[in-house]
TrEMBL record:
It comes from the Bacteria. Keywords: Methyltransferase, S-adenosyl-L-methionine, Transferase. PANTHER family: METHYLTRANSFERASE, UBIQUINONE BIOSYNTHESIS O-METHYLTRANSFERASE, MITOCHONDRIAL. The lineage of its organism: Bacteria, Bacillati, Actinomycetota, Actinomycetes, Mycobacteriales. GO terms for biological process: methylation. One of its GO terms (molecular function) is methyltransferase activity. It holds the Pfam family NodS. It comes from Rhodococcus sovatensis. This is SAM-dependent methyltransferase. The keyword Transferase applies. InterPro entries: SAM-dependent_MTases_sf (IPR029063), SAM-MeTfrase_NodS-like (IPR008715).
Amino acid sequence: MTLDQNYFDAVYTESADPFRLGDNWYEDRKYALTVAALPRARYRRALEPGCSIGILTEKLAARCDALVSTDIVASALASAQARVDSAQVRFVEWSLTQSWDAVAEGGTFDLIVLSEVGYYLDGNDLRAALDSAIAHLEPGGTLLAVHWRHPVADYPQSGDQVHGIIAAADGLVRMGGYVDEDVILEVFAASTDRPDSVARIEGLV
Ligand SMILES: C[S@@+](CC[C@H](N)C(=O)[O-])C[C@H]1O[C@@H](n2cnc3c(N)ncnc32)[C@H](O)[C@@H]1O
């Protein structure tokens, strides 16, 4: 069963940064891998569901003209907003399981980042969220997913299961990725054909 807002409200009652996103090299390195893996130098409009206290938000904002960052915990969003005080970032209290109208506002995204959020959804909810993500990604747009691989008892899915569901989704082509014992990071393009690589786009091949 998908973990709900009550679960995460309780988690953030224990600590303002319950996932220790701001104080360790593991996360610093993973965020560096995440932004380095983005195939485009700049994005027009990105969506970041589950932004927590906004550490990755700050790094994505540097690469995006506009960014919509969401969480289901109001206190986490407030922390993110205090960290990233920028007119280009819109913070919305929104869950991946809700209607996408509230975040898309009739438009599309050229980047969606699922960083450490997919495993809170059960398989059915994740597949439905992915269908919506693909419907709101412009052709050729990037979907980047990055997840912890070690088992966590409370979570309905493992990181590897999340990436298995994404890999099976129609409308995405895998562009590349990174995996080690701790983390799996994969980059997909919204396409049916394989899009040009970064080197091809840059005229190096
Ligand atoms: C481990 S933190 C990840 C933060 C950030 N994405 C990163 O990688 O640093 C997960 C966040 O996802 C939020 N979350 C949980 N379920 C969610 C859902 N269904 N939709 C949006 N956010 C969710 C939690 O409240 C929490 O702040």
